[in-house]
Design a protein that fits this description.
alpha/beta; eight-stranded mixed sheet
């Protein structure tokens, strides 16, 4: 069972769909294809940093949930940049249980998915999106999935442009990152992350935070690896997005 401890979302999240058609559109920002969704009049925005599998339907559906689930009370423009420019990791590399898979995944993390290099791109993307949307955006939040969680940790430190951030089934969890985070953070962990690492990360935070472990879900259930045909995965996917919305309603 997942560990509870967060108030119920004040919004209604629509049922997740297995065969999903996204509601948004694709725009180009700073040379990067970017999925954009949500009302253009919203003054708060959320940047989603996807997992290594790129524009997965589950991730885009999550973006639409954050953008459209509660239009009357809280509105967000939501953006998902294609950091890998159409060349995400191959699903066959995961889990990296052979030497060949491990080498391919390692090369990907050293190359296009290098965390430090990716983190340096965030400021330019936020500036580009803000300009492209006519300057309506006044506050930014961020959600990172798996690999994207590491990018969120690296870009939520002193001088960050984000007002609140979240990480779902985060990869490369490091308590030293937590010590430097300066804005409220929500962590939704799965059964596959080290419980000890998640605990140490939480203990190292000095900001408002909500940390919850979905101990019956696998790494990636809220993004590309979420099998929404399974009723339990589907319900926990929906509940996870309710928690994210409730968190951003409070802090963004």
């Amino acid at each position: 069972m997942a560990q509870h401890g967060h108030s119920e979302a004040c919004c209604t999240v629509p049922p997740a769909q297995v065969d999903y058609k996204e509601k948004g559109q694709y725009i180009e920002v700073d040379g990067t294809k970017t999925y954009a969704t949500g009302p253009s009049s919203a003054t708060s925005a959320i940047l989603i940093i996807y997992d290594i599998f790129g524009f997965a339907p589950q991730t885009l559906q999550g973006a639409d949930i954050l953008a459209h689930a509660d239009d009357k009370h809280h509105q967000y423009q939501v953006f998902v940049p294609d950091f890998f420019h159409g060349n995400p990791a191959d699903h066959s590399w995961y889990p990296p249980d052979t030497k060949e898979k491990g080498e391919k995944l390692g090369a990907f993390f050293q190359g296009p998915a290098n965390p430090g290099d990716t983190a340096k791109k965030i400021s330019g993307l936020l500036k580009g999106i803000t300009e492209k949307t006519g300057g309506t955006i006044q506050k930014w939040g961020a959600v990172g999935f798996c690999w994207g969680g590491k990018i969120v940790s690296l870009t939520s430190q002193s001088g960050t442009a984000f007002s609140a951030v979240a990480e779902c089934h985060p990869a490369m969890i490091d308590p030293n990152d937590a010590k430097a985070i300066t804005v409220p953070i929500c962590i939704l962990a799965s059964s596959d992350e080290s419980a000890e690492d998640v605990k140490k990360f939480g203990e190292s935070l000095s900001v408002k935070n909500h940390i919850e472990t979905f101990s019956d879900q696998i790494h990636g259930w809220m993004a590309a690896r979420g099998d929404l045909k399974e009723s339990k995965v589907k319900s926990e996917y929906e509940r996870g997005y309710k928690i994210l919305l409730d968190f951003f309603h409070e802090h963004l």
